[in-house]
Structures are given as structure tokens and as C-alpha cells.
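Weekly structure sync, notes
Attendees: PL (lead), two postdocs, one rotation student
Agenda item 3: pending single-chain targets
PL asked that the sequence for the first pending target be pasted directly into the notes so everyone works from the same version. It is reproduced below exactly as submitted, 176 residues in total.
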Amino acid sequence: MLGVSNLSVNHPSRNLIRAVAILAFALVISGCTSLPQSEFKSFDSIVLLEGSEPTPTKTVDSSGQQYATDPTAEVEIDDQSGDGTFITIDEIELTRGNAFLVVYNLSGIVLAEAFVTPQSQPVTLMLDAPLSGSQQLQATLYLDNGDGVFELDLDLPILGEEGELVHESFWYSVGI
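Predicted structure, written out during the meeting:
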């Protein structure tokens, strides 16, 4: 009969059982994590940019005006009314970085600008001076050059999917 002291002695069959158990465990583990060779993708290299957004494409027209291109950029503004001190922009889409939403009157005078990001929804702009009467306005997107300050001569107007300026005209009724 085996005594208690004989249980701790390494026995050849016990070592064989351990080896088989370890081998079986390894096979089970490796079987769970391997995919057929055809499902692996091979890349020569992966390059990560500093920012998370795609780099804007610059375009120059025949007059020398530079533009930034963002095929998904869009501005949605409904006609609105109020006391003439603020404007609310319902939806802005952009993927190529931070931008400025600039509101003009039909004379081309900048009434307000707001720094917007791809996550800005909705945007309320306080006008530099209150509107004195109802009028047609428009809003245009400009790609920020990285300094966080709107500068008409340095920040580029954005062209959308059709290669057209990303802007929206809307009617603003004062006092209604």
C-alpha cells in the first residue's frame, strides 16, 4: 500500500500525464485564436497622422483663390426669426478638421463667426451688431488654418462634394 510520503515522489506516469495535459491545453488555446490564412490582411506600412481628422485637400481656381475640399461638409439652416441678436445653425457636417462658420449679409459684411468642430451641433452665433430689419443672410464654412482665429485672408473657404462652396442662404425675420 502506498504511504502518504510516496504521493510526492515524481513518478514517470505522472510526468507523462502532466505533459499530455499541457499539450492538450496548448492545442485548445491555439485552436481558439487562429484564423485561416486567407483572412489575414497584409500591409506594407501603416501611417498615422498627427490629428484624427483627414488632411484637407487644397484647390486653387483660375483667379488664384485657394479652397479646402471636404466632400462631406454641409451646412443646414432654416429660415428663422428673433430679436436680431443671434442666429441658430441646425446642422454642420465636416470631417477635415476645425472650421469657422461665418455669417454674412448680402453686402458681404461679416456679421458673426463661430469656431466649429465636427462635433458642434447646433451652433448659436451672437451677431457683432443687432440686425435692424429682416433680411436674407448666408453662412459659409472656412477651414481653420490651425491658429483658432478667423482670418478671412488665411482661413480657406471649404468646397463640398460637388466642388461648390459650402454655404447656405436663409431668411432672418426681426421682431416676429
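Discussion points:
- The two ends are 104 Å apart (CA to CA).
- Helices lie at 12-33.
Action: rotation student to compare against the earlier draft before next sync.
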